[in-house]
Every structure is written in C-alpha cells, then in structure tokens.
Queue: 2 jobs
Job 1
Amino acid sequence: MESSLEFSSSLGSVSSLLTRCRTFKVLVIGDSGVGKTCLTHRLCAGEFPRRVEATIGVDFRDRALEIDGEKIKLQLWDTAGQERFRKSMVQHYYRNVHAVLFIYDVTCPASFSGLTAWIEECRQNSLGQEIPRFLIGNKSDLRDPTRTDHQVGQDRAMSFAKAHGMIFFETSAKNPLKKRGNGHRGDGALRYQQDDVEDIVTAVGATLKKRKTPSAANSPVYSGSFKVGKKKAEELWTCC
Ligand SMILES: Nc1nc2c(ncn2[C@@H]2O[C@H](COP(=O)(O)OP(=O)(O)OP(=O)(O)O)[C@@H](O)[C@H]2O)c(=O)[nH]1
C-alpha cells in the first residue's frame, strides 16, 4: 500500500504539472525598422529600449499574464525584418506558431504596403487561417496632426485588417497611452485610435487562452536568441 508520504509526493507532482502554465508562441513580423524589437520590449518588459540594433535571426522574449484565473505565457519571437538576416531561419519561425503580430510603421506607408509580402510568407509556410492574426500600427507618437500624407490612415488599416481577418491596434512602443483612448488628429473633428500596449497583450492572451493547445505539460520554451550564420547562439529551456 502506498505510504502517506508517497501519496502526498505524487499529489505534489500532479499539482505541479497542473499549475505549469501554457506557453504560446507568438511570431512578430514586419519590415525592418518598423519597431518590432522596441514593441516586444515594451510588451514584455514594459519599457522602451535605450539602444537597438537590427535583429539578426530571432530574439525571444516572454510575457506572463493571467486571464480569468489561468496563468499563461506568451513567447514573442522578434524576427529580423531584413531578408539577409532571416535567410534559412524562416521555416523555423513558422513551426508551431499560435499567433502572429504583423507590425507596420504608421509614418511609413511602404511598411504598410509591405504587409502583403508578409502575408504571402505566412501562406508559403502553411500558416493556417485559424491562427489568430493581429495588425499593429506602431510609432503613433510620430503622427503629425497637420498632415495626412506620408502616414497610414486608420480607415485604411482597419479595412485591411478586416479583409485579412486580423484584429487591429495602433500604438507607440516609445510613448504608449496609459489608458485606451482616442487621439486627436489636429482639428479636433478627426480622431484616431491609440491603444495601450497592455490592451494588446490582453487581447492576444485572451484569444489564445480559448484555444485547446498547447497542453500545459509539454510546452517547451526557448529563451535568448538564434543568430543567422552561427550555431544555436543560445538555447535554454525554461518553465513558468
Ligand atoms: N518614435 C518612435 N520610434 C520608434 C518606435 N518604435 C521603434 N522606434 C525606433 O525605430 C527604430 C527601429 O526600431 P527596431 O525595434 O529596431 O525595429 P525592427 O522592426 O525590430 O527592425 P529590424 O530588427 O531591422 O527588423 C529605432 O530607432 C527605434 O528607436 C516608436 O514607437 N516611436
């Protein structure tokens, strides 16, 4: 017969298994310079990095959160925007992805036009339509209220998001709003949406929490980075 010690120890392992949180892989893609690294810093560490360099390969950052009593972890894959720094890594980016954040710069219409190429890359890597997609216009702090040229209008971005089944946000990694609200576009009559980064985290978390996968017991996590041209620069296994 099992001793009370053995019984409580096996209960302990069951409970530790149950309390391990589910980890979701969230891919962050978009043209070089749109602010993917700064935004993932903001989403995960709550700050704007003092100094950033072009991402080489991919960097990993985690964000733990609790949604309706369940602890989950988002693992953000901040991928290189420059083709030469992506190279052979691309297929690894798309493996077992649970959600994708498409980032563009609201002051750079070319980065918005470039989204079609990122959608095509998702298609080529067999990313299913069931994978939640989020469209995020970054650098809203640079919007010039006196002009509409050289900026991506929100109506255009919202239509694009709707056409591609994405949830739309506009924010600034540098100077995010503390509360969700509307920014004025100069004359007071026109307004644009500015989202708190925490609203983005919550929306991604809440969407993923409803999903059945991955199981709490077998969700391996990476931290650190993979660099193109080097062997695995750093590969660590972590747990909540
Ligand atoms: N004003 C402003 N500048 C930003 C914001 N986000 C990023 N930047 C600046 O934009 C530049 C590029 O930012 P990154 O985060 O390195 O861009 P990236 O998309 O990761 O670039 P790659 O690594 O080349 O793909 C840096 O100079 C940042 O300081 C923002 O919200 N507002």
Job 2
Amino acid sequence: MAAVEVRNGYKYYGSKSSPKIVLNQLNMNVMRGSIYGLLGASGCGKTTLLSCIVGQRCLNGGEVRVLGVKPGEPGSGVPGSRVGFMPQEIALVEEMTVKETIFYFGRIYGLTDERIREKFKDLKDLLQLPPARQMIKECSGGQQRRLSFACAMIHDPELLILDEPTVGLDPMLREKIWNFLVETTRNSKLAVIITTHYIEEANQANYIGLMRKGVLLAEDTPTNIMIKFGTQSIEEAFLILSQRQGTEDQVVDQNRNQSVALPAAVLPLEVIDSHDPTTDEKPPIPYEETPNENRKKVFFTTKGRLKALMTKNFVQLFRQPSGIIFMLLFPIIQLTCFYLAIGKTPTNLELGVYSGEVDSYSECFDANLKTIYNANDTCHFNKLSCRYILELGDDIATRKYYASQEDALKEAKRALTVGYIYFAHNFSESVHELIEDGIHASDGAVDNAELTVHIDMTDQQVAYYMQRKLRDKFSDFMNGVVRDCNVSSALVKLPVQFQDPIYGSTDIEFQQYCAPGVVMTMVFFLATLMTAAVFISERMDGIWDRTLLAGVSATEMLWAHLCTQLIIMTLQSFEVIMYIGIVFDTYNNGDTTTLIGLLTLTAFCGMLFGLFISVFCKSHTEANFVATGAFYPMIILCGLLWPLESMPRFLQDLVMVLPFTIPSISARNVIEKGWSITNAKVYNGFLVMAAWTIIFFVLCLVGIRRKA
Ligand SMILES: Nc1ncnc2c1ncn2[C@@H]1O[C@H](COP(=O)(O)OP(=O)(O)OP(=O)(O)O)[C@@H](O)[C@H]1O
C-alpha cells in the first residue's frame, strides 16, 4: 500500500505568466514499510517535492496523497503527528538545550512527558546525542543534525521525510542511521523518504527515484535500475539518464528555435516503474492553483502544545542577553535619559549685564551701598540697578559685567552669552519719577525705568526660560521697591491675575507634560522591534515552518506568542511605572492600575504591530525600515512635541485616530487630573488602543494564514 502518491505533480515558482517550473508532471510512489531514496543534483527540485508532500507547499497542478489523505485536510494528521520531517536546515532553537528541544517537539506532537523521556533515552543511544543540558548553539553541526533527526523521530511517525539527514556525519554514524532505518522499515509500516548526495548509501534503500530538472527520470529498486541500464552502480545509471535527458533538451531547444510547438509531455524521458503502472499515464498539465487546505484549519490547542510553545518563547527571549536587556533594561536606560535630559532647568548659562548707573560694578557689591532712602517722606533711589543685579544672583545665569552696551552686544553676538540686560544711566531717577508722578510721568522716565533685555532667540527654549525668569525677577524687584517706599504695589502690578490653576501646578514642567507620551511610545516601539526580530528570526531559521509541519496551526503559534508577550508586557509596564514613580518622584494624581493597564495595552498593540511588520517583511532590514519609518510620523503627530491645536484642521482630525494621540491625553488626564477610567476622556484612550490592537491582530491573522 502506498504511503505517498504523487500524480502529475506540477509546481512552479514566480508568476503564472513567467513560471519557473520546478516539478514537471512528476509521478512518484512510496510504499509503506520501505525506504525511498530520492536522488538528484542540487536544484533539481527535491526539497520542493518534499515540501509539497508534507503540506508545506501546494502543487500548482496534479495531486498528492499522503497516508491516504490530502496533505492539509483538517484532522488528517498531515502535516502533523503522522509525519516526521527533518528539513535540510537545522531549524532548532539555538537557545534551547538538547533536552528542552526534545520535549518541545514531543509536546507539540502530543506525547506525554513520560513517553518523551523513554523515547529520548532510546534516541540518545542510537544517535549519540549530545548531553541533555547542552545548548543547541554549543553543539557541533553534526550533533545538531542528529538532534534534528531525533526530533523528527520522537513521535513514531508513519511517514518519515528526511532531507539530507546524513550530511556532515561520520561514515560510522551514517551506517548506524541507515541500519536503524532498514531495520525499522522491515519490521513496521514506516515509510521513509530520504534525499542524499551520497548516492552509494542509497543502495540500501528499497526504492530509488532519480530526479533531474523537476522530472523523475526513473523509479525502481536499485538492482532493477542497474540491470536496466547495464551499469555497476546507480551513479552510472543516473549519468546515462541525465545524458539522455540532456540530448532531449537540445531537441526541444532546437525545435523551439524553429518555432515548433512541442507538447509539454515531451518529458520525462523514461520512467521505469515496476511497482505502480499508473505512472505511465500523462494527462496534460493543469494550471489551476490548488487551494491551501491549511487555511481551513480550525483553531484548537492543547495544554501541552501551549506549554511547549510558551516555554520556547520564554527561553528564546531570556537566554539571549540582548532579549533581557531589551525588555527590562532598555526602558530603564531610556527613561533615565529622558528624565535626566528633558524638561530640566537650563544651567551653566552666562548673561551679560550692563548698567549705565555705575562706573565700576564693585560699587554694587559695596556693603554700605543704600539703594533706597527716605528723605522728606519721599523715596529716593541710588544706583537702583545694583539692587536688581544683586537680587538676580547667579541662579538663572552667571552674570558677566560689561563696561558698555556695545561690548555686551558684541559678546552676545559671538554667542559667548545668551544675551544681556541693560539699565539706563538714569534708571534710578526714572523709577523715582514713575512712582512719584504715576500716570503723569514723562515718556522718557517710562522708557528709562525699564529693564531692557536682548536675548539670542535661536535657542528658543533657553530664550523663553530667560525671558520668563528675568520678567518674574523684575516683577519681584519692583514689588520690593514699592513696598520699601510704602507705596501701593498696585502701581507696579500688571492688571492680570493668574490664580491657582484648575489642574496641575503653576510650575508644571515640560517633562511632566510629555512623560506619558514618551513612556507610551517607548514601550510600544520596544515591543514592536522585539517582536518583529523574534518572528523574522524564527521564520528565517526554519523554526516557524518546522513547528507548522509538526501540526501546530499558525493561530496557535500566534496565541502562544500573545500569551508570552502579555506576561512580559505587564511586567515591563509595572517596572516602568514603579521606576519613574520611585526614582524620579513622578507624581500621579490618579489610579496606578489604570496607568499600568493602559501601558500594557500599548505594549501589546506595539507587539502586534511588530508581528504585522514581520508577517509582511522578508528580512530584518526591511522590518527595521518599516518600524523606523512608522516611528517618527507617529511621534511627531501625536502632540507630544507640539500642541495638536497648532496643526492644520484636517491633520488635527486625522491624527486623532493614531495610536498615541488620544491614549497619551488619557494618560495625562489620569496623572494630572486624577480622572478615573469611568471618565470618557480616559477610557477613550483604551478604546483607541484596543481598536488598533484588534486591527493589527486581524491583519496578522489574515497574513499568517495566507502564508501558512
Ligand atoms: N521560494 C523559492 N522561490 C523561487 N525559486 C525557488 C524557491 N525555492 C527553490 N527555488 C528554486 O527551485 C529550484 C529547486 O529548488 P529545490 O530547493 O527544490 O532543489 P533541491 O533539489 O532540493 O536542491 P538542493 O539539493 O541543493 O537542496 C532551484 O532552482 C531553486 O533555486
């Protein structure tokens, strides 16, 4: 009875209009209880054929039946527990130990831990596996290959497919493996398909198939093939067949040059099939796509599988030092940078000072200097600018004194100071006139009683800071002067009163304003980058495909990742909130659990965005381009750096739907205003983030299922 039947197998890569044909009307029969050696030069299509047999790829035409079912049929066990597949690449998780790897495959194939232990013991002896605790990345190439073989065998499959299993193994071990396969197939119904470059070892196979350019040139027992071609070895027979096919190719090419249409069925040249005569029938190649049955799989999982998948995910993450650094240390480093560098008061500034009232600034520091004195019940001032200079101190900026306004301007223009302040030579008299005469004071007095400030506005934040501080100091100074003169402070007060703020404090810092947005974008993109990296690596290393071929559905793998990440993201959010609360004393007027919840949801959404990227990007480079490309627009447009209200109207509406805009406002509402989750302006942040999470999840699911 046939374990594998391929009828008129046709497969191409590329587009339908210019297909690269890899399998061309291929017929193949593999009997139960036998070894089938598939031989052929590199690139002839062996791996492609095997991938169609295990259900990893679909034929574009023809039919495959494996163990009596079509690969991918729901509940068929193909791909799945009925088949063992050892791919050409190692496709094992480098960070796992030998034992963990065996348990991983055992569990996803549905074996009990007891059974896995027993099988491990048997296979360990047979394949001389490395010590149980040795990490895969510490194993030699040969050891990894043997372990990969053990993983394909662990669940006693009915069909074992081995793609180049003996490459890199020493002759003794190769012989041992062949003896084992011969023994097992003789005493059971196990069917083995094995590809190898060592043609001589294929002598031990019950049947061999000689493949060239996507065609099975011959399929028979090794002895029959040698008899048929009158050769002493299979290698010679293969050579003769290849030469014949080459000659036929030339005929085809010549005819093609003469524009003669040839039937597609001109190949294969010769098929010898003593055990299945049906292969001689050659109907025309059908061109329709065969639907991928994998997509019809319904979601289900088992505790063992979920455990295996989640263990793998955790091991993969935490055994890589970069994984732990990325997840736990990066947030700390980034937050530390943010809190130390953003929103703090500028220091080490130098401010030029010029007062026309003094000949030497030492006069200002004379302990006997009296800037205010009363005579005839009238306040008189002497070198009043000195009082301001003394009150100003060096807290805001270090004062640098100049003998002339020109000197002060020259140094400011050379950026040696942030600017300068200037007092007129009659500043004291002008202030006196202003206080005495009030609205009747002359224009000259009004002008000269001012503090004149010239600031370099190119450094906007520093300039605004200086303006604000100098103005406040001057206001305090004038209040002090009129108080000392027993004059009403109303005279020097601006008719604008800023009362206690409704929310927040008068000293609210930029840091406090942008912290929610910064923290959210940080956890989002950390999750994005990490997830994209993990998934792409898993796909490139072949682990993703191998797990799918073990019967795990793409949906199960997605769920396992989501569960793993949810745990990590919750931990990370907790860590972030605690760190900024304890180390940087960031206040929170609202509920911490609400913040952790929103942050976890943000990280989760970031993870799905990473997954989305990994599904649609082929390489790490491509994924990095997309993630970086998305990062800046999202940050710039979310109102973190500049108020949303300043954007054009259409953009304001547009950015409201972005993942960070409303959620960061919600977080700020919790922190600053102490609002709870029942408030619409808090829960709308959750809704926006949840909506993006669902969108990314659905897109990922569609993408993954299409690829599966
Ligand atoms: N995903 C793909 N897209 C396009 N072409 C592909 C793809 N995979 C394989 N091919 C091409 O199909 C042909 C058959 O490849 P395949 O890997 O099946 O050969 P093979 O016989 O297994 O080779 P080897 O023994 O070197 O592994 C090769 O020319 C290869 O370049």
